[in-house]
Amino acid sequence: NIKSEPLLLLIKQFIQDEALMEQFRRAPAAAQLHHAYLGGLLEHTLNVLELALLVIPRYPRVSLDLVLAGTFLHDIGKTAELTYDTSFGYTDSGQLVGHITLAAVWIQEKAKQAEAETGQPIPKELLAMLQHVVLSHHGSHEFGSPKLPAFPEAIAVHYLDNIDAKLHLYLREIDADPDEQSHWTQFQRSLDTRIYKVRLQDAADNKK
Fold first, then answer.
1. Per the database record, which ranges form the HD Cas3-type domain (predicted)?
2. Is there a contact between 35 and 48 (Cβ–Cβ < 8 Å)?
3. What is the structure's pLDDT at 205?
């Protein structure tokens, strides 16, 4: 779905990196929070890509190409940030640098590779905007973003990412709660709330 030739050339550099793509298929999306299981990173990324394809076409002034490229790459640094062969944790580079910065650096490196192989330059402004989407996708300094979203595509990736992450957490905690009699889960520290477990279908059934 990406029509921008410079972005396609860059994305192909990532896709053609077989070792990276194998890690991308296996890695969790987190050590503890959303999609924290093998294959979770790929599942989360595909979910956000599908959300982007549904939402962004409603906003013709927003670049779908940039949103899709940013979505594909927003968490790719987690392949090097997390350990997941035996137990989930963080690598040294994950703790010292983090997945956001790792991805931004990789974008620069892959762009140079693409330019060297094809002889086609990738516009510096486009590259900087893609890096910004990645650097700002957590949405605030408090949650680890070194930059705040500065243009529509960046804020779009932040919210689309957050939709999938938060819905996964809410549904997971509903399914995992052991008290089948209560309409509420225990207090969830990661969400700072208890979750109301009754689904609309359940509420309708209770009225019969």
1. 34-208
2. no
3. 56
Residues 33-85 have pLDDT tens digits of 778 889 999 999 999 999 999 999 999 999 999 999 999 999 999 999 999 88
Mean pLDDT confidence for 158-167: 95
C-alpha closest to that of 122 among 43, 4, 3: 4
What gap in Å lies between CA 151 and CA 129, rounded to an integer? 9
- With both helix axes pointing from N to C terminus, report the angle between 64-73 and 99-118 in degrees, rounded to the nearest 10: 120
Task: Please state, in angstroms and rounded to a whole number, the distance separating the CA atoms of residues 31 and 90.
Answer: 8
Interior angle at CA 10, CA 107 and CA 13, nearest 5:
90
Domain at 5-176, CATH class: mainly alpha
**Distance between CA atoms of residues 180 and 161, nearest Å:** 30
